Amino acid sequence: MATRSHLLVPIKPLHAAKSRLRGAADGGRGSPRAHADLVAAVALDTMEAARQADGVQVVMVSSDPELTGIVAAAGVPVLPDVPAAGLNPALRCAESALRAQERVRRIGALHGDLPALRPAELTAALRAAGEDRAFCPDRHGTGTTLLLAAAGDALDPAFGPGSARAHARSGARRLDGPWPSVRCDVDTAADLRAARSLGLGPRTASLPAAD
């Protein structure tokens, strides 16, 4: 199927990502290796599910060498996290680089912490958005897990605290369909339990933190 949406998936360096999840991978001990393994598993499950959605090309945005090697070997394009100044600057730079490399119909941003993501639900959300600028709020209703530019327009990300309100104010249409796996991002151990109730991807499910 022809690519209709290029989804940028930003991932911080594994050692620095998801600080509120630290200890969730090893019963509270906080091993850096266990934490990195959990963050990597969540990210890889997210990207693999997104790749299976109709018309999606996933592009990871990261400068983590370990994750970059794994993802590139799987055939996923990777753009560096520059200028290493936060999520929104990274997405804007990645968008510019992607547009310079190839002709892009539509760009979106998908959080890389959706370990229960189901391809069919992401496909349904993308179809519901149509050609509009749109966003999917997280399960709490305040954050954003998916942002889509209108076809042919810039992404204009406003991630951060209260991003759902910020994206709505920017003119993005709120997507509130029955897609719980698209909304279930994982920042805390409680979030991980909520994702587990939906069904974790295979990498995350195989870790002790998912027991």
TrEMBL record:
Its job: Guanylyltransferase that catalyzes the activation of phosphoenolpyruvate (PEP) as enolpyruvoyl-2-diphospho-5'-guanosine, via the condensation of PEP with GTP. It is involved in the biosynthesis of coenzyme F420, a hydride carrier cofactor.
GO molecular function: GTP binding; phospholactate guanylyltransferase activity
UniProt keyword Transferase present: yes
Catalytic activity annotation: phosphoenolpyruvate + GTP + H(+) = enolpyruvoyl-2-diphospho-5'-guanosine + diphosphate
UniProt protein name: Phosphoenolpyruvate guanylyltransferase
InterPro entries: CofC, Nucleotide-diphossugar_trans
Keywords per UniProt: GTP-binding, Nucleotide-binding, Nucleotidyltransferase, Transferase
Primary enzyme class: transferase
Similarity comment text for this entry: Belongs to the CofC family.
Gene3D superfamilies, per the entry: Spore Coat Polysaccharide Biosynthesis Protein SpsA, Chain A (3.90.550.10)
Provenance organism: Saccharopolyspora montiporae
